[in-house]
Amino acid sequence: MTETLARTTRVRNTRDWLIPLGLIALSLVPVVAGASRVASLATGVELTPDNARFVGMPLPVILHIVGSTTYCLLGAFQFQTSFRRRHPRWHRLSGRILIPMGLVAALSGLWMTAFYALPATDGGLLPLVRWVFGLGMVAAIALGVATVLRREFAMHRAWMIRAYAIGIAAGTQVFTTLPWVLAVGAQDATAKTITMTAGWILNLAVAEWIIRRRPTS
After folding, report:
1. CA–CA separation, 59 and 173 (whole Å)
2. 167 with 140: CB under 8 angstroms?
3. pLDDT tens by residue, 106-150
4. Among 6, 11, 46, 57, which one is least packed by beta carbons within 10 Å?
């Protein structure tokens, strides 16, 4: 009986770690791309039409990369249920880091959408879509803070899951964009809008499934 219980516990713990590890894996492509961007800005890079906005005003993109990288990687461990329950103080401390990092990521992304000279492929409806999901992420984080202050922990959990789903969508968008590029070729503004929107919607659909599937108490 004891051996069976121990084996069951090990299996559950292993499965519990698969979620944060999977989220980290999902974040790898944008994290590596962001690190490469920061390194190139720090060491000097040849000016091209694609990077002129970043070279001319690097602070917003650096804030966005640092904020989103921290938010995605550290936030993944909030989904490690058994560790979070055993170490509630760690959960609270990491939350105090994640909230400002998430806001930095979202607000810097909105700033770049509003003020950077964007390439043609980022035109059309894509800026509007970015505003919708960027403001949605800010609102979800704000509601997550408000509900935890009222000790409404189930609602806090739900809003923070939604915010994280939006924040980590850059990883999902690799998988919604790649099939289009392989099948059709380079994207125009319409195709990019469709594939990026698909990444955000897919993540939010999974988030809602998680919120409704698991106990909320």
Report:
1. 24
2. no
3. 999 999 999 998 888 899 999 999 999 999 999 999 999 999 999
4. 46
CB 144 within 8 A of CB 170: no
Q: What is the pLDDT of residues 76-114, one digit of tens each?
A: 999 887 777 777 888 889 999 999 999 999 999 999 999
d(CA 75, CA 157) in angstroms, rounded, equals 12
Give the Cα separation of 177 and 184 in Å (integer).
Answer: 11
Q: How far apart are CA 204 and CA 210, in angstroms?
A: 10
**DSSP one-letter string for 164-196:** HHHHTHHHHHHHHHHHHHHHT-S--HHHHHHHH
Of 173, 50, 68, the C-alpha closest to 118 is: 50
∠ CA 182-188-194, nearest 5°, is 80
Q: Which helix (H) or strand (E) holds 34?
A: helix 2-43
Q: At what angle do helices 88-115 and 58-76 cross, to 10 degrees?
A: 150
